[in-house]
Amino acid sequence: MNVIFICLFLACAVALCFINPENFLSALLDGTSKSATLCVALLASYAVWLGLMQVWEDSGVTRGISKLIRPVAKALFKTDDEEALSCISMNVSANMLGIGGAATPYGIRAAKALDKTKNAEFSSCMLFVVNATSVQLIPTSVIGIRVALGSGNPTDILIPTLLSTAISTGVGIALTFLFLRDKKPPFLHKKSKKRGAGAK
Q1: Staple 103 to which of 82, 95, 138, 154, CB 3.0 to 4.6 Å?
Q2: Where are the domains of the chain?
């Protein structure tokens, strides 16, 4: 990913030098200034939510959330692994709050835990889909960006964001079950087992 961004930057820089060389330096400095301002503006938002997530984990709220979503997560990810379910619950919670930076470590831990389970391929694919689509209850990062850029009503994206992400997550989950389900009906497995037993 870093290589891709570097290539894009170099390509744009070279193009700008040929098209409008007199404004190259000013555009570079202006972009750097805006990015620094945006990072500082998002710092407070991330500090609050990351601190809250750590408090939840230390106080045992994580375990409570894991128990609440356990039936859904168990059916959705086809796993009984406690560590995986705990990491998934925190990953999903962070994503719902729009804090991708906080969700990433839990997602990595969940992926490592799911990789050791029985249905590793299906569970890992489902985790990827849920993270890629990610239902957003409060798009914290986007709201922070809108505030930093001077939006008059930075929270007016709540309902559209919730609807679009809920639909995308639902479609993604449905497609995952559709394409990764076992193609053979259960009775075929039973017949094959009987034949194997008879051959012995």
Answers
A1: 95
A2: 40-182
The structure tokens listed for 191 are: 């017949």
> How would you label 165-178 residue by residue, b for 16+ Cβ within 10 Å and e otherwise?
beebbeebeeebee
Cα angle 90, 91, 97 (rounded to 5 degrees) comes to 90
Q: How far, in Å, CA of 150 to CA of 145, rounded?
A: 9
Cβ burial, residue 109 (10 Å; 0-12/13-18/19+): middle
Q: At what angle do helices 82-96 and 61-77 cross, to 10 degrees?
A: 100
What is d(CA 185, CA 15) in angstroms, rounded to the nearest whole number? Answer: 58
| SS3 (DSSP) at 126 | helix
Distance CA 56, CA 168 (A): 28
Q: What confidence tens digit (pLDDT) does each residue in 8-21 have?
A: 888 888 887 888 87
pLDDT band (50, 70, 90) for residue 187: very low
